[in-house]
Design goal:
The structure holds two protein chains of two kinds.
Chain A: E1 11-14, E2 18-25, E3 30-35, H1 45-58, H2 66-75
Antiparallel strand pairs in A: 1-2, 2-3
Chain B: E1 5-12, E2 24-30, E3 37-41, E4 48-52, H1 67-71, E5 82-88, E6 97-98, E7 104-107, E8 112-115, E9 127-128
Parallel strand pairs in B: 1-8
Antiparallel strand pairs in B: 1-2, 2-3, 3-4, 4-5, 5-6, 5-7, 6-9, 7-8
The chains are: A alpha+beta, B mainly beta.
Chain lengths: 83, 130
């Protein structure tokens, strides 16, 4: 891991397009400003990790069978076609 | 009656969050799972998600998605964008949930999608479907 010391108002640049600026230094937190292209997603790490875990939890390896779907489908009141 | 099934292949350039190796998915609509659809990774046969249009859960869901998220997908008019959320179906129906915090946004014309995380909406990754 690269470790860099910065003072208030100083910046870092990552690649050519991502800038990070130290806006405020508190007693046990820092406030950062981040400038990045819109296609770059920026999230608090713990939120990102939680979503990652939720994606893992949501993985299923096959389409649920018909009987397993029946109850849920009823909830949305969708007419089902029978063969 | 005849069962209908349609499918389209959608590219998620960045993969899904936590699944960066899964960039290409088939979105499969079938009568027998409607209104859910099935999102199947073409890279990994073991990875699939049951997805649903979140507006069936919260009517105005689309309105909470920031425009900049659509812009990054090349969708100029958010009304034309497609939104899906992954679902977890529990044995007890009432416990089934949808991930309304991290929707999949799709530019269907370009067959391109991305998963985003919504913050400060109060919606959670385990929103009851019922």
């Amino acid at each position: 891991m690269l470790v860099v010391t910065r003072k208030k108002d100083e910046k870092l640049i990552i690649g050519n397009e991502i800038e990070i600026q130290v806006l405020r230094i508190g007693r046990d937190n820092v406030r950062l400003g981040i400038k990045a292209p819109s296609h770059i997603s920026i999230y608090r790490y713990e939120i990102y990790e939680a979503i990652k875990q939720e994606n893992v939890n949501a993985v299923q390896s096959q389409i649920p069978d018909k009987s397993a779907m029946e109850t849920l489908k009823g909830v949305f009141r969708v007419e089902t076609k029978e063969e | 009656m005849e069962m209908t099934s349609t499918e389209s292949t959608i590219q998620f350039q960045e993969g899904l969050i936590g699944f960066y190796d899964c960039k290409s998915f088939r979105l499969i609509a079938r009568d027998e799972i409607a209104p859910f659809r099935w999102l199947q990774s073409t890279d990994r046969p073991d990875i699939g998600f049951l997805v649903i249009d979140p507006s069936l859960v919260i009517r105005d869901y689309k309105a909470i998605i920031p425009n900049r998220e659509w812009e990054s997908l090349g969708v100029a008019d958010p009304d034309k964008g497609m939104v899906l959320v992954t679902c977890m179906v529990a044995p007890s129906t009432g416990a089934s949930t949808g991930n309304l915090q991290a929707p999949l946004l799709v530019n269907f014309q370009k067959r391109a999608g991305k998963q985003v995380i919504l913050t400060e909406t109060g919606l959670t990754s385990r929103h009851p479907l019922l």
